[in-house]
Amino acid sequence: MHILIIGAAGMLGNKLVARLARDGSIAGRPVSKLVRNDVVLSPPPPPASFEIETHIGDLSSAGEAAKLVSGGPDIIFHLAAVVSGEAEVDFEKGYRVNLLGTQNLLEAIRSKGDGYRPTLIFTSSIAVFGAPFPDAIGDEFLTAPLTSYGTQKAICELLISDYSRRGFIDGMALRMPTVCVRPGLPNKAASGFFSNIIREPLAGKEAILPVDPSVRHWHASPRAATQFLIRGAEMGGTALGNRRALTLPGLSCTVAEQLEALKRVAGAKVLEKVRHVPDESIQQIVAGWPRNFDAARAKALGFSTEKTFDDIIRVHIEDELQGKLPN
Amino acid sequence: MHILIIGAAGMLGNKLVARLARDGSIAGRPVSKLVRNDVVLSPPPPPASFEIETHIGDLSSAGEAAKLVSGGPDIIFHLAAVVSGEAEVDFEKGYRVNLLGTQNLLEAIRSKGDGYRPTLIFTSSIAVFGAPFPDAIGDEFLTAPLTSYGTQKAICELLISDYSRRGFIDGMALRMPTVCVRPGLPNKAASGFFSNIIREPLAGKEAILPVDPSVRHWHASPRAATQFLIRGAEMGGTALGNRRALTLPGLSCTVAEQLEALKRVAGAKVLEKVRHVPDESIQQIVAGWPRNFDAARAKALGFSTEKTFDDIIRVHIEDELQGKLPN
Known about the structure:
Two copies of one chain form a homodimer.
Chain A: E1 2-6, H1 11-23, E2 25-26, E3 29-30, E4 33-38, E5 51-56, H2 64-69, E6 75-78, H3 84-89, H4 91-112, E7 119-125, H5 148-165, E8 170-176, E9 178-179, H6 192-202, E10 207-209, E11 216-220, H7 222-235, E12 245-247, E13 251-254, H8 255-266, H9 268-271, E14 274-276, H10 280-287, H11 296-300, H12 309-320
Parallel strand pairs in A: 1-4, 1-6, 4-5, 6-7, 7-8, 8-12, 9-11, 10-14
Antiparallel strand pairs in A: 2-3, 11-13
Helix pairs in contact in A: 1-7, 4-5, 6-8, 8-12
């Protein structure tokens, strides 16, 4: 299998590369080649049984997409995006990267012709939904995004369904829960605090909680998010019929429940590192976000995730902290 | 009020121009100027109390949109589109006209800057929905189109909501029922027969019914469709909040009910002109179409339509046949 990962230098891209290197195969077949692409240089490749090629390029620049698909990758993971905060601040950049970039990719695939029809796995987001919504959003609820980022993702979902229906790709758009606990440094996403309040205390550092502890949100660990991508590739898009956008399972819990889990897993002392400093603007953004889903379709298709936030914290400790709690 | 109509040479465009010429005003203010644009020459303008300018141009060509908004129209009706059948046959043309054309318009408006923020009324379609759906589709049902045309309309809806939220336009996307009875000659829409089976017999001509009489669909007269556009301009998009796409009211009835209404209004003899010649390909297309809606939101906002198919036929006889039934 020849694999292309666009947005390979990001958090999820790196996790996926590491997972493929470890497994050596995907969907029951050996990986023969992996091409990594991003606008920045990807980190050094992990040891792997297959060749790893690394490119720097911007999918929204003319000709870039054609170069990337010229080798005819069997599976394309398109993870590249400008995050929500940045797409809101820079309107043009958001549309260029998140919409035009994806359109360029789809058109490059279609233009290849000759029956070329790769599996395309696109990371969408729960940001395609906007308030007001029911307590648990079902699989037939409308996409009414309240950000430009969410709009761009919702549009890409529609394009992927149409290009799949027309036979140009075998695509799917996987609506990721908020990935928590996000390792590394904060990015520009307004959702950063959900991870900060766990990751920073576990590293002995202070974290700011800008919202009320009653705020409820929808989470999955980086490990679960990586497994979603792998599961999508195994399954193929045809299993989704004409509706190629899929809300993935996640864990719905409040910030208070996150902090209780942190206390259970790492002790009361760690909790002292979290300072509650309400931020009106973040409160307001978060109020428009989904809190809970009924991801019945994805569960029936074999997607699964953590059952408790304790599990999500344990995954972080295992995968990022070599299993060690702070002293 | 300075009005721009894009797609002015089409059936609905002509009806709207005639209505504006008759009223001389819109949303309680006199019309000062009307600019008509289409890819083909519009028919001679009706007598009006205001100047009518006529342009030929393709919104999807570079620079065309900027020219059209250079005069700063207060209200823009964007009715131009490649119809469903054609967008399905010619993939590139559909995306160019229906998506890129609308994107060009939105970007031309945004680029004007200086606080320019026109009312934009965009004709969307019930083709944004695709089976399976509930008996009556509510205002929170997902858009899962089964045609490229429906995909393009659904994408434009998302863009219009986002550009409105960002303050570049005061927009709305009005999801038109199937307009019936469509006057004039058939176009490439697969829905043509819904009108043909009424219009042709009333003109003393034969019509083919390609589907089973049990087929249920969602209709509004050309007069009601024109009134939807006027009502949208009166209301303004702000009344729609962040969800700028609106399913309009219509009449849900079966083909059998259409034919019974025709018999009641025009007599049993007229009915003999309808020949049932089943067409498997049209049957299959129609099976994916919505049949009924609960358009609660639009009704609460003052949009209304015919209550019986008899009324729809009477509107056709009044508006197109000078009130005369065939001999």
